[in-house]
């Protein structure tokens, strides 16, 4: 198994990390990646609180459920790949930054998604899906690069991931472009969610990826901290300050969370 060099970022084959590597911890790039999700989580929590305070609990729950699945699943897709195949070379970093751009686009799509659920008649998740397209261009590239470096069953596993992610994303694009009512959109999204969850089971049915148990545990722990923290702040601010005032506080809130996370990164 290969390990990223600490002295150079030259291209390295993605043949898989050692799942028993000593001292494996979250990298600065992974922590930076988490910061992009802080924005999406905060926006989702804010709109959930605002709709709830306005008496639209059903719309708030529907929007929050859809958005949080999209946000968390995007994070999970990258984190498990990174645990198994992170090379930390320049190409890996560049592709990951493309994925970060996709997360920001996804966050920009959260307000119109909530608004369409509240006001109707059609569900507007086009910007969220566009963000996923950008993210998954990077994700599929990672998987294809891993397929090139791996052999045997692991090679087939990485190809299944690449094909599965590409196929389901085509379905999501069709879903986003087809005008449909909120009810129809929710009904159709259920089998798409099931397919999303089934892809890792299908891809790894013969050979699992060499993910690192301690690394994954740390990644989930850090993400839970920032998700809970931003979720609490994003929920309390709009309720405490009113619907309009909540939007005014978002910039300051995000800057606070970003600064706190940067301090933790430097401290590592």
UniProtKB/TrEMBL annotation:
InterPro entries hit by this protein: Low_temperature_requirement_A
Source taxon at top rank: Bacteria
Polar residues composition-biased segments: 1-10
Region described as Disordered: spans on this chain: 1-20
UniProt name for this protein: Low temperature requirement protein A
Coiled-coil segments: none
Transmembrane segments: 31-49, 61-82, 94-114, 126-146, 158-178, 184-203
Keyword Membrane: yes
UniProtKB keywords: Membrane, Transmembrane, Transmembrane helix
Organism encoding this protein: Metallococcus carri
